[in-house]
Structure formats: structure tokens, C-alpha cells
Amino acid sequence: MTNTTTTAHTNIALIKYWGKKDAQLRLPYTDSLSLTLDGYYTTTTTAFSDATHDQIYLNKQLASTKFAQRTKNYLDLVRQKYQVEQHFIVQTDNFVPTAAGLASSASGFAALAGSLNKLLNLDLDNTQLSRLARLGSGSAARSIFGGFVRWYHGNDDETSYAAPINNANDIPIRLLSVVFDTNTKKTTSTTGMEHAVQTSPYFVTWPQIVQQDLQQMLHALDQKDLKLVGQIAENNALAMHALNWTARPAFSYFSADTTDLLAFIRRLRQQGLLAYATIDAGPNVKIISSTDDISVVQQQISQHYPSAQTTILKPGTAIH
């Protein structure tokens, strides 16, 4: 049986995307900017199936109905887009907690798109692959590439894609992933952002905030100013979560631990350590730091939160 295996890494958005102007094409309202991470990744193998339906496996077991349905919806889209009639066997191994706010869907759909590209001999370049991955999960567009990546929001399928930021690869950045909770989050990213877009009175200001933060972040990366990168990323993350706090009714992805850790990170900065927070749609936190300070930051976090799982992450590579 012919099969193809692809690995893609998760990414963390330093300039967030929150809200889609086109749900079907997963076109965001704004650009975003991310860092691909080495320690969390998805490996996906696809093959043609003789059965009359797709067979979806996650971590060596039959996938849950919810996971399988989202994957099948994507496979239907690929079949329609490329006039393919066969069904598939999809085996996904997630080396990252699934649906816990750690971007498993980004690495998952990037790996699936990459594997199907080879299996179906589509011969897509990375820009086209970024667009194909986006149709499964918006942030998957960014996981096609390694290092720092910008996703251009675009106005249609052709113009919404990610591209690497090549002048920033020698910045001595490290991230500390602090995981309090690996359970599936109660509010999915899709549900959360739809609710915030529709009901937060402050959403109208969000595109302007992102545009300003993005330009400052590109400058900080160009100047190799890691402290400024951290400041901008933390401010942008909190602005994104403020949209959820101001939605009607309000909701939050934060737990008590999340809020406590934000205060603790401020205390680490007062001690002279480089430490800034960024938080996606979940209670877990990633701390932006430097190669010099990351070990001390991890030590302090582990002492203060002995039950938290901490992992030091470096910039990750493109799909392979």
C-alpha cells in the first residue's frame, strides 16, 4: 500500500488572529505573526482506502466522532477541490495535547495537507500548501514554515497565505510552555472567536491594534530586540483575551492559575529576567525568554507551580 508520512510543528502566534471574515475559507480579519515550535508536533500518514468511507485514527486508536468528522469534512473538501474519488486512511499521532489551547489543529492540518500533497501527487509549493492547510485550520497556514512566519489575511483563497520572515532566524529566543491543564477546552477557538466578533463592542478596534502591533513586531525582529518582541507579544495576547472578557456574555479561557502566573511573570521581570507571556485559546501559558534566561525561568516556575508541566521550546522547522 502506498502511503506518505509528513511531520508539522505547532506554532504560537506572537501577533494573534481572532475572528474570521469568511468562515468557509477561514479568512481572518487581520494578518498574524507566529513562531513555529520544535517540541510540539504532529506526524500524519495517509493512504488510499478500499473501503467506502474514510478511516481516521488518532494516536493509534479510532478517532473520536468529533475529531473524525472534522477530518472527514476536510477530506471531502480536498476531494472536491482536486476531483479525487478515493477514500483515505488517515493516521495522526499528536505529540502535543489535543484541543487544549496548544495549537494541535495547526500542526495537525499542516501535516495532513502535506501528506495528501505527496499522496495525490499535487506538486504544490509551500505557498499553495499554506492555503490548502488553512482550509482545515486557519493557524495551520503558518505551520507549513519554520521560524517566524507572517500570515497575510488576504481577501480570497488565493491571497490568504503564510510566508517565512527570513531576517529573524538568529534571534536567541526560547519559549517555556507551562501546562496547567491538558483537558479539552470547554469553548473551542471557533466558537469563542465567533462570539467575540459578534458581541464585543471593542472588536471594531481589534484590526487597528493588530496592524500597529504587527508593524512594531516586524521592527523589533529586524532590530533583534528580544525584550521588545516579548513586550509586544504580551500586550497583543492580553488585548485578544480582552475581546472575550468584553463579549456579551463575557467568557474567558483563563483559569486561576493563568491569572496567577501572569502576576508571577511580572515579578520575574522585576528580578531582571527576560520573561513575557503569550496565551492562546486555553489556560496554558507560553513564556517568551532568551537562551540566557530560560533555565532560570523554568527553575522558578517549577518551584512555584510544582504541578505544572514545563517544557523548553526552541524555534521549529518547516514541514517535512
Structure in words:
The protein is α+β, with helices and mostly antiparallel strands and 320 residues long. The protein has two domains: 166 residues, Ribosomal Protein S5, domain 2 (2-Layer Sandwich), CATH 3.30.230; 141 residues, Alpha-Beta Plaits (2-Layer Sandwich). It has eight helices and 13 strands. Strands 1, 4, 5, 6, 7, 8 and 9 form a seven-stranded mixed β-sheet that branches. Strands 11-12-10-13 form a four-stranded antiparallel β-sheet. A two-stranded antiparallel sheet has the order 2-3. Strand 8 and strand 9 form a beta hairpin. Helix 2 crosses helix 3 and helix 5 packs antiparallel against helix 6. The radius of gyration is 19 Å and the shape is globular. The protein starts with a strand and ends in a 7-residue tail after the last strand.
Q: What structural category arises from helix and sheet content?
A: alpha+beta
Q: In the CATH classification, which architecture of the largest domain applies?
A: 2-Layer Sandwich
Spans of at least 5 consecutive residues whose pLDDT stays below 50 are none
Mean pLDDT: 95
User: Helix share of residues?
Assistant: 25-40%
Total of DSSP H or I helical runs spanning 4+ residues: 8
Give the overall shape, derived from the CA principal axes. Answer: globular
For the sheet with most strands, the description reads: 7 strands, mixed
- Overall strand count: 13
Total individual domains: 2
Report, as a whole number of angstroms, the end-to-end distance.
21 Å
